[in-house]
Amino acid sequence: MAEHEPESLIEKIADKIHGHDSSSSSDSDDDKPSKVEAVQAKIFRLFGREKPVHKVFGGGKPADVFLWRNKKLSAGVLGGATALWVFFELLEYHLITLFCHILILSLALVFLWSNASTFINKSPPQIPEVRIPEKCVLEVASALRAEINYALAILRDIASGKELKKFLGVIVGLWVLSIVGNWCNFLTLFYISFVLLHTVPVLYEKYEDHVDSFAEKATAEFKKQYVVFDAKVLSKIPKGPLKEKKKD
Fold this sequence. Notes:
It is a single chain. This protein has helices at residues 4-42, 53-56, 61-66, 71-90, 95-116, 134-159, 164-183, 186-206, 208-232. By secondary structure, the protein is mainly alpha-helical. Helix 4 (71-90) runs antiparallel to helix 8 (186-206). Residues 1-7, 20-41 and 242-248 have low confidence and may be disordered.
């Protein structure tokens, strides 16, 4: 019995050592993902983006179109928008005129086909019954209402004087938009925005590391210039004393 006691003691010590090594290794393995996530979180992303570009655009079919996941569909949408812009802007076609001409042509073709089918002994065309579902209209109206309310809330916060940076950014953006509006009409501006939506996101997704690195440097430089501007201009603007109204 005395010979077995040292062996059992040694075995217990060895088991404790192995157990400590395995627990420490598992702890280190568990720490690796957290360290990787921490490093990824520290990477500068444009506009504070935390999700992939595809998720930012909703992750559905619109995102697939904007990011050219389906090249045929994206090319078709962009080609259709270009054709409409050529019709309305270059050829000076009007929307009502185009709609009426398309409707006249479609009705004439279907009418002739329906009457000609009786002479050639073929079945007349099956015209589908098209109805707009109420649920779809309500969903679109609800989504549009939410976006409008969100935009109004942002404008209200900016106008209340709480955030000077946002106020200056919105003023500059509206000023630039007013200048661009003098150069082209609404249709051309809408078409340019549509083309940018089909080109800028896919290029950014392809070169996002280079763009984010450049944007980080530009943001740091802008913050430096803003500090100088604040010290020389904004801090010297006289401000009246703010008195809180006492509630009775």
